[in-house]
UniProtKB/TrEMBL annotation:
HAMAP family: Succ_CoA_alpha. Transmembrane segments: none annotated. Heterotetramer of two alpha and two beta subunits. InterPro entries: Cit_synth/succinyl-CoA_lig_AS, Citrt_syn/SCS-alpha_CS, CoA-bd, CoA_lig_alpha, NAD(P)-bd_dom_sf, SUCC_ACL_C, Succinyl-CoA_synth-like. The active site is at 249 (tele-phosphohistidine intermediate). This is Succinate--CoA ligase [ADP-forming] subunit alpha. GO terms for molecular function: ligase activity. The lineage of its organism: Bacteria, Bacillati, Actinomycetota, Actinomycetes, Kitasatosporales. Keywords: Ligase, Nucleotide-binding, Tricarboxylic acid cycle. The gene is sucD_2. CoA binds at residues 17-20, 43, 100-102. It comes from Streptomyces javensis.
Length: 298
């Protein structure tokens, strides 16, 4: 009942011994995540005690993978070192790298995304909250206590809106919530998540959150029309953005009519997606769809 991340995922944290890494490693462990190690070349061979759990620190991702069988890495590294960190994870053939770091130069993101893709490493992010399969595992910074396991899949560009929809639909619950990030160059896209949710037998309905700028949502709409049979509910952040302004994420840049919230809403609705005007209305659309198909979701 999850995509990309399950209770069997073995997670390492690159940058675990830093302040942010330690804080969120503690939260991931509390959520039940199987954190099997951290990576810091300067602290290789040491161990860190976190709320009664002893976590070893390795000198490299390769050492961590060889010793623990890790298949997920969560990266809390400063922007100047992010390219090298993702490259190291890809060289170790980590299947999933979750890049939380924001402020990574675009040319670095372009380089490490291509490098990881060539080595079959899925990247989520950068500048993202990560992903959570409630009740199973949490890789990133998403709060684990605001929802429960269920059969809704959520993919979102916005971390804050991820949390809001999780909370508003907490009585229904989620299979997996994926925050893909709002930078101009990201690894896992709306389409990647939509395909995975469509293939997941225990996801019955999909919520997709986009935002102004670019054409990712329009491309996702075309994909939904051609390939997705499950109901999809959407929301586009930025309906009230002043014309000609850059808002929020680095990717939220509008030129003329391209990339506007209205254009994205129209494309999604043409593909059969119900689109809310606000996050609360979006949650209401989900509940309405569920009411029309009683017994569809547990």
């Amino acid at each position: 009942m999850a995509i990309f991340l399950t209770k069997d995922s073995k997670v390492i944290v690159q940058g675990m011994t830093g302040a942010e890494g330690m804080k969120h490693t503690r939260r991931m462990l509390a959520a039940g995540t199987d954190v099997v190690g951290g990576v810091n070349p300067r602290k290789a061979g040491t161990r860190v005690d976190i709320d009664g759990r002893t976590v070893p620190v390795f000198g490299s991702v390769r050492d961590a993978v060889d010793t623990t069988g890790a298949d997920v890495s969560v990266l809390f590294v400063p922007p100047p070192h992010a390219k090298a960190a993702v490259t190291e994870a890809a060289d170790a053939r980590i299947p999933l790298a979750v890049v939380i770091t924001e402020g990574i130069p675009v040319h670095d993101a372009v380089a490490f995304q291509a490098y990881a893709r060539a080595r079959a490493t899925r990247v989520i992010g950068p500048n993202c909250p990560g992903l959570i399969s409630p009740g199973q595992s949490n890789a990133g910074i998403i709060p684990a206590d605001i929802t429960k396991p269920g059969r809704i899949g959520l993919v979102s560009k916005s971390g804050t809106l991820t949390y809001q929809l999780m909370y508003e639909l907490r009585d229904i619950g989620f299979s997996t919530c994926v925050g893909i990030g709002g930078d101009p160059v990201i690894g896992t896209t709306h389409i990647d998540a939509l395909a995975a949710f469509e293939a997941d037998s225990e996801t019955d309905l999909i919520v997709m959150i986009g935002e102004i700028g670019g054409d990712a949502e329009e491309r996702a709409a075309r994909y939904i029309a051609d390939h997705v049979t499950k109901p999809v509910v959407g929301y586009i952040a930025g309906f009230t953005a002043p014309e000609g302004r850059t808002m929020g994420h680095a990717g939220a840049i509008v030129s003329g009519s391209s990339g506007t919230a209205a254009a994205k809403k129209a494309a999604l609705e043409a593909a059969g997606v119900s689109v809310g005007a606000t996050p609360t209305e979006t949650a209401g659309l989900v509940l309405a769809l569920l009411a029309e198909t009683p017994g569809n979701l547990a």
